[in-house]
Amino acid sequence: MTTRVGVVTFPGSLDDRDAARAVKLAGAEPVALWHGDKDLRQVDAVILPGGFSYGDYLRCGAIARFSPVMETIVEQARAGLPVLGICNGFQVLCESHLLPGALTRNDHLHFICRDQRLRVENADTAWTADFAAGQEITVPLKNGEGGYVADERTLDELEAEGRVVFRYLDVNPNGSRRDIAGITNAAGNVVGLMPHPEHAVEALTGPTTDGLGFFTSVLRKLVA
C-alpha cells in the first residue's frame, strides 16, 4: 500500500506543488489538502509548505493557525501524526503551539535567498532518519521573517533534550538564536525548519539532492 502524504494549500501558499513533487520523487503519493477542509483524507503524514499563508497578515502563520485544516492537524499531531513545516509552515507550527518559539523579521531587515549549508543535529526524528547526526547538507533558503527566537529557558531545554534538528553553518542568515535552523517536538514527529528541502530533490533544479532525505525518512518511519 502506497504511503499517502498530505500537502496543505493555504491562500498564499507558494511551494505546495514543489513539496508534492518531492513526495512523489521519494516514492509516496502526494495528497492535496485544502485549508478550509477539516478532512485529512486518511493521510499518513502532513507537510505545511512555504509561502505567505493568508498574505502573512497580522503575523506570519497567525491566521493559518485558525484554519479548519489546522484544527485537525493539531489534534492528529499530538496523537503522533508526522508533520513537517517548511518556512511558512514552520511559522504556522509555532503559532499553533506544536513547536515552541517564534519566527521574527530577519535581523538585517532584508529578504534573503541563497543556498544554505546546514548541520544535522538530530537524525532520530520522523523526518531526518535517513540522515546521520553531524552530516552537513545544502538546501535553498528564502525568507524575510526567518529569525528563530525563544526565551533562554526554552532554548536551553531544546538543546538539553536534543530537539535542535538543524543548525546554520558558515553564516547565520537571519539572526536566529544559537544558529537554529530547525527544531522538533519532544516526540520527534513534528519538525519545522526555515530552509527549503523540497527545492533540493533533483540535480537539474537544486543545488544538491540533499533535501530528498526528508521525504524518504518519513516513508521509512511509517513502514518500520
From TrEMBL:
GO cellular component terms, semicolon-separated: cytoplasm
Active site (UniProt): C87, H196, E198
SUPFAM superfamilies with a match to the protein in the record: Class I glutamine amidotransferase-like (SSF52317)
Record GO biological process: 'de novo' IMP biosynthetic process
Database matches in PROSITE patterns: GATASE_TYPE_1 (PS51273)
Subunit structure comment from the entry: Part of the FGAM synthase complex composed of 1 PurL, 1 PurQ and 2 PurS subunits.
Protein name as annotated: Phosphoribosylformylglycinamidine synthase subunit PurQ
Organism: Streptomyces hainanensis
